[in-house]
Design goal:
The protein has 185 residues and is an alpha/beta fold. The chain has helices spanning 13-23, 41-48, 58-62, 65-72, 89-94, 118-127, 162-184; strands spanning 2-7, 28-35, 53-55, 77-80, 99-103, 131-138, 148-155. It has one domain (2-184): Rossmann fold (3-Layer(aba) Sandwich). It is built from seven helices and seven strands, in the order βαβαβααβαβαββα. It binds glycinamide ribonucleotide (GAR).
Length: 185
């Protein structure tokens, strides 16, 4: 049985979709959820599903404390689901090819530092794109630059707002992210 740890900073709809999916999968389970945001609603979702969870400060990510916990818990795959801090070198080295992220646009477009959540959808809207989507990728030391594992597109038009783009993207995320994670296990 492989163990998944989810790291998330906010609402946690992706985290919840993943937790629910893996309740019905024999080969892996969500063993742990961590957040750098003590007010994140994702913590409530973890509580509701009985998933062990913890919070941490940025410095604990950087000084190796979070890495130590993930190693003690024998985590096999780290899943970032709306996690807004940069993954530090210490975790990337301890978990080679075992950290996966989802980005709410078609990388390499609209990625990089500061590009997360609604900022991405606003940038997509401002650029007049006719298509956006999701990118699931391995995490390396550069924001949004790891090898792409999976992408899916969705059409948008001038009547779309950043909010409606976000809804379309979230639908794709919830549909595909859990299945792609399962395929990696
Ligand atoms: C998701 O759309 C995810 O792709 C995005 O944050 C949102 C979190 O939503 N991640 C990034 O922008 C990372 N650069 P959720 O909290 O409802 O899962």
């Amino acid at each position: 049985m492989k163990k998944i740890a989810i790291l998330a900073s906010g609402n946690g709809t992706n985290a919840e979709a993943i937790i629910e999916h893996f309740k019905n999968v024999k080969s892996a389970s969500v063993a742990l959820l961590g957040s750098n945001n003590t007010n994140a609603y994702v913590l409530q979702r973890a509580t509701d599903h009985g998933i062990p969870h913890f919070t941490f400060e940025k410095k604990e990510l950087e000084n190796g404390s979070v890495k130590a916990l993930l190693l003690i818990k024998r985590i096999d795959l780290i899943v970032l689901a709306g996690f807004l801090l940069k993954m530090p070198e210490n975790i990337i080295q301890a978990f080679p090819d075992a950290i996966v992220n989802i980005h709410p646009a078609l990388l390499p477009k609209f990625g990089g530092k500061g590009m997360y959540g609604d900022r991405v959808h606003q940038a997509v809207k401002d650029s007049g794109e006719k298509v956006t989507g999701i990118s699931i990728h391995w995490v390396n030391e550069h924001y949004d630059e790891g090898k792409i594992i999976f992408q899916e597109k969705v059409a948008i038009d001038d009547s779309d707002t950043p909010q409606s783009i976000a809804e379309k993207v979230h639908q794709l995320e919830h549909k595909y992210y859990p299945k792609v994670i399962e395929s990696l296990i």
